[in-house]
Amino acid sequence: MAGNSDTNKNAVNVREMIAEKKKKKNLSNFTEKFIPTFLLLIASISLLTTVGIIITLFTEAIEFFKIVPIWEFFTGTVLRPMSQNPEFGVLPLINGTLISTFIAMLVAGPVGIMSAIYLSEYASDRVRRVLKPLLEILAGIPTIVYGFFAFTFVTPLIRSIFPEVGATNILSPGLVMGVMIIPMIASLSEDAMSSVPNSMREGAFALGATKLETTFKVVIPAALSGIISSFVLGISRAIGETMIVTIASGSSKNFTFDITQSMQTMTAYIVEVSSGDAPAGSTIYYSLYAVAATLFIFTLLMNILARYLSRKFREEY
Amino acid sequence: MKYVDEAVVEKRMKARIRNNSILKFIFLLSTLFGLVVLAVLLIRVFSQGIAWLDWDFITGRLSTDPDRAGILGAILGTSWLMLVVIPVTLFIGVGTAIYLELYAKPGRFQNFIATNISNLAGVPSIVYGLLGLTIFVRALEFGNVVLAGGLTLSLLVLPIVIVAAQEAIRAVPQFLSEASYGMGATKWQTVKKIILPAALPGILTGSILALSRAIGETAPLTVIGIPALLIPFPGSFFDTFTALPMQIYYWTLDASLVSEYAYLAAATIIVLLVLLFLLNSVAIFIRNKFQQRY
After folding, report:
1. What range defines the domain where residue B160 resides?
2. Would you say residue A195 lies in a domain?
3. Of A61, A169, B154, B174, which sits 20 to 30 A from B128 (CA to CA)?
């Protein structure tokens, strides 16, 4: 009976296939169960990074505050880490950081928002498609290149007009930092302004407003939360910027408001001390972490503020 | 009775239109301001550096003598760094993105990780340097070697890769994965064979952009401690190294001592910028060529 043996053969085959299928299924069941856990582990690396940053910064900073009282650190106007009887006041660094940030925002704020207005309200589609990527190139240039530019071009240029300006000063890196931040403010503000619906502009035009009046009285108020949050992010970027100020502003730790003089920022202090081979365990080594923790808190607060502003006051249309 | 005094309107209208045109011009100038500075910067760097940029400079070893100095060591160092950064960021970045987009249940935990990633993106690069110094260089006792530098840079650019990969995965249309499920595929099979291939161009584009950020990053490396004058070339992940941006940094700092160092720095900047330009071109090429619109 040929037919019968055929069925038999087939039956055996099917059983084998079922067994094989089961084995495969068990394996794939295992993979299916295992993969999510595995991915969760990978995803938690980003959490570990945050935890790592916080733990390293704050445990070492606490060691520092055991030697230098926290009050002295935050109110001291004298920073002399290398001297015989060192003093660790962080105010000169905070002062340098805020002044360079202020100068940068004086450039980046107005120029950035005016660029955003042009790109969002005035430029034709074709012009925008050319200008915007060109502007973004500015954001892609490494900061070390800006540092080189500030030190070897902008500073000599300023000094040829105002000879009293120092070879290292806070003004030149501040200005260059401003240029670096322009694209960030321009593109975030432009996003905010572009998302204002056209019907609102058309309403203003219908009432006889010019483009300028529409921009200032309708578009900007509607996009204000996004614009302000772009400013805050720009400030945060300027506070954390390192190479430009390290190269072009020198390492003077004077507590001064004279922008023609060298000042040190928090970031530049970290570079100076860590590249000076501070022995682990010394007070100056721990001071690195205290300064970095201060810097971290500054930028974190700015970032949280920016996110809060753009969420809280976003108007939905 | 007239509601509108046309004479007054006419008179004011002229000023209003004039203001509009004047400010439009000012807005245009502001937009061009950034571009002019960019042009000045590029012209300045190229005019200073191009004369020093030749084959001997690219293939030469470091030297205190400006005429003999070369940057092959820095180029190799940067390449070794990338050998660490590329696999580490791709693996962790894509893994995290898959988890967040496809596996995590929407809710508190997912929000928490997302918030955490956006906070990490805002942490100044120098803080990552300090993290790398404390953990990789000192606690794990790697020393200031390629692996420590590469891992530090990886952590730094990881948020960029994660966000890019998330966006790429989100852009894959639902019907593709539904069709896959309909054929009896399991979730992981769908992810591996349908979603990831479709998201690959976007992931690659984002990763290349993150890579170009890592290549230009200097601050974390200064903290980790890169020797200023390193003659031997790195040959493994556990060798000390120097990198292109570090070379620019040291030469710029010393330009006040030896003025030729400024030209060497400029020449190195040209090499770095060309490298970044090539990387970005590749990214744009991949995006235009392989990105599917559904």
Report:
1. 58-290
2. yes
3. A169
DSSP A120: I
Per-residue pLDDT of chain A (317 residues; tens, 9 = 90+): 444 545 555 556 777 878 887 877 777 778 888 888 899 899 889 899 999 999 999 998 998 999 888 888 888 888 888 777 888 889 999 999 999 999 999 999 999 999 999 999 999 999 988 998 888 888 889 999 999 999 999 999 999 999 888 888 999 999 999 999 999 999 999 999 998 999 999 999 999 899 999 999 999 999 998 999 999 999 999 999 999 999 998 888 888 888 888 899 999 999 988 877 667 778 888 899 999 999 999 999 999 998 888 777 666 66
CB contact under 8 Å between A145 and B248, yes or no, is: yes
Q: Which residues have CB under 8 Å from B276's CB, separation 6+?
A: A140, A142, B212, B215, B216
**What is d(CA A274, CA B224) in angstroms, rounded to the nearest whole number?**
8
| Residue A114 CA from chain centroid, whole number | 22
Q: Is A304 in Cβ contact with B119 (below 8 Å)?
A: yes
Q: Which three-class secondary structure string do you get for A50-62?
A: HHHHHHHHHHHHH
Angle, helices B196-216 vs B244-253, to 10°: value is 20
Nearest to B19 among A137, A183, A212 (CB): A212
Amino acid A2: pLDDT: 46
Global pTM reads: 0.89
As for how many domains chain B has, the answer is 2
Verify that A58 and A172 share a domain, yes or no. no
Would you state the structure tokens that stand for residue B153, as one six-digit string? 């840079």
Interface test mutation site (partner B, options A242, A286, A299, A311, max chain B beta carbons within 10 A): A242
Q: How far apart are CA B75 and CA A211, in angstroms?
A: 51
Q: What is the identity of the amino acid at B209?
A: L
Is residue A170 in some structural domain?
Answer: yes
CB atoms B133 and A274 under 8 Å: yes
The answer to whether residues A264 and A302 belong to one domain is: yes
**Strands (DSSP E) along chain A, which ranges?**
79-80, 87-88
Shared domain for A105 and A247, answered yes or no, is: yes
Q: Is position B1 within any domain? A: no
B127·A141 Cβ contact <8 A: no
Of A56, A146, A274, the CB nearest to B225: A274
Report the alpha-carbon distance of residue B142 to residue B144 in Å, rounded: 7
Cα gap B287→B277, rounded to integer Å: 15
Q: What is the ipTM of this complex?
A: 0.90
For an interface test with A, the pick among B3, B38, B88, B127 (most A C-beta atoms closer than 10 Å) comes out as B127
Judging contacts by C-beta atoms under 8 Å, the chain B residues touching residue A213 are 16, 20
Q: Indicate the angle between helix axes B72-98 and B260-290, nearest 10 degrees.
A: 30
- Tell me which chain A residues have a C-beta less than 8 angstroms from the C-beta of B278: none
Confirm if B128 and B224 have CB atoms less than 8 A apart.
Answer: no
